[in-house]
Amino acid sequence: MLGIGAIIGTGIFVLTAAASQKAGPGMMVSFVIAGAVCAVAALCYSELAAMAPVSGSAYTYTYAVMGELLAWCVGWALILEYAVAAAAVSVGWSGYVLGLIEQGLGFDFPDLLSAGPTWAMNGFIPMPDFSAGIVNIPAIVVALLVTGLLMLGTTESARVNAVLVLIKVAALTVFIVITLPVIKTANLSPFAPNGLFGASSGMGIVGAAASIFFAYVGFDAVSTAAEETKNPQRNVPIGLIGSLAICTVFYLLVALGAAGAIGAQPVLGAAGEAVQPGSPAFVAACALPANAEALVCSNEALAHVLRVIGHPQIGNALGTAALLALPSVILMMIYGQTRIFFVMARDGLLPEGLTKMHPKWKTPYIVTAFTGIAVAIGAALFPVGKLADISNSGTLFAFFMVSIAVLILRVKEPNRKRPFRTPLIWLFAPLSAFGCAFLFWNLPHDAKMVLPIWGGFGLLIYFLYGYRKSHLGRGLIEVHETDSDLPPPPVPPIS
């Protein structure tokens, strides 16, 4: 439930439109490519998660195998995965709630308060354009509400998540049942209007796969909760691989239903060129009356499909399901991010004040509040496609490091007990590393540049603070495994 709750969300409810703009109906192949890379990465994750059932995900695994510096780099990159992904899902939720308000209630929400600005690069400096939107108010609201829920306690959060997962799966099942019978093969042609790689960075089937990888992000949230899982050596691998398999089947059927029912052809720029989703040229193309009902222009893709094929009430119901269910993805992303911050602080790499537990709620409320505010700011100012691509850059780096770590550990400690062993490790782990690097290379240029810039900023923090305060470097503590449920010991004063 935790894995499915973290995976199924904005990727399929919202990014279906962005993937269509990049690949057309060929986005179905994009789902297969991204799912294949994710599957081999999941096998690598499963071996390490079962061996080291502690919070921290890829950060902890890298710490145990490659040392503190590389672990810091991975943990810092995971901020791009979890926090930025939570912001992206918040924007996706905003699209569905605004569609429900406008279609179901007939209320016209102010455009300038329903989306952030569009962004264009001026050299190396991103410049905002506020003509289409200033700030995304609904996205801010949902990010802060979910943060408040997490501060109250993970038990309550897990119960809410279980209900929302069921709503989400039921909504997608209804969508599949309604759309598959009305598929028209003509809507699937041309199948790949932008080709395999596209004319520009991030376009085509492979570019869409790099973006739609976001649809699978979240399966590793299972491993971040390993400390709080019964029998993690058995259950974490089952949760990782099982949730991935179930979600892949859903994604392919939903993508086929959406593209086959109303078409999924990209809109073109003023000169007839392919344009990136979320770019100023894309916004201008979607403002044309001829593109009013285009799938690629919808902020609530699945509900939009149902309305176009003559089921407005069911479309509104699906919008309501998304309204209720997408917060579960935000919840799991912020949850995973706070636990990674918590473990990094426990190891001394971040201020230990972040690990402070609330006396009543028993949750790390300071780091949770900090994360939630950062997520709300990102959701307020950036479009969902750009946030998803930035999130993917951090995620693919973390998955790459895990793929390398599992190989190194097989060589360094071949006889260590492995409750779950990755099959064909010398085939699957290199495939995972290569696949992650390949997808990263096919992200849009600005999304690729975020990772090294963000990483450089992180290294500056590490050498100014973490390197001097690290428990491992000061000989105070090893990587937490046996004492994972205990608070950090008091640090003696430095004479």
Automatic annotation (TrEMBL):
Membrane spanning residue stretches = 29-48, 69-93, 130-150, 162-183, 195-217, 238-262, 314-336, 365-384, 390-411, 423-443, 449-467
Q: Where is this gene product found?
A: Membrane
Cite the entry's keywords alphabetically: Membrane, Transmembrane, Transmembrane helix, Transport
Q: How does it sit in the membrane?
A: Multi-pass membrane protein
Q: Which GO terms describe its cellular component?
A: membrane
Quote the Pfam families the UniProt record gives: AA_permease_2
- Molecular function terms from GO: amino acid transmembrane transporter activity
Q: Which Gene3D superfamilies match?
A: Amino acid/polyamine transporter I (1.20.1740.10)
Protein name per its UniProtKB record: Putative amino acid permease YhdG
Q: What species is this protein from?
A: Brevundimonas mediterranea
Task: Tell me the organism's taxonomic lineage.
Answer: Bacteria, Pseudomonadati, Pseudomonadota, Alphaproteobacteria, Caulobacterales
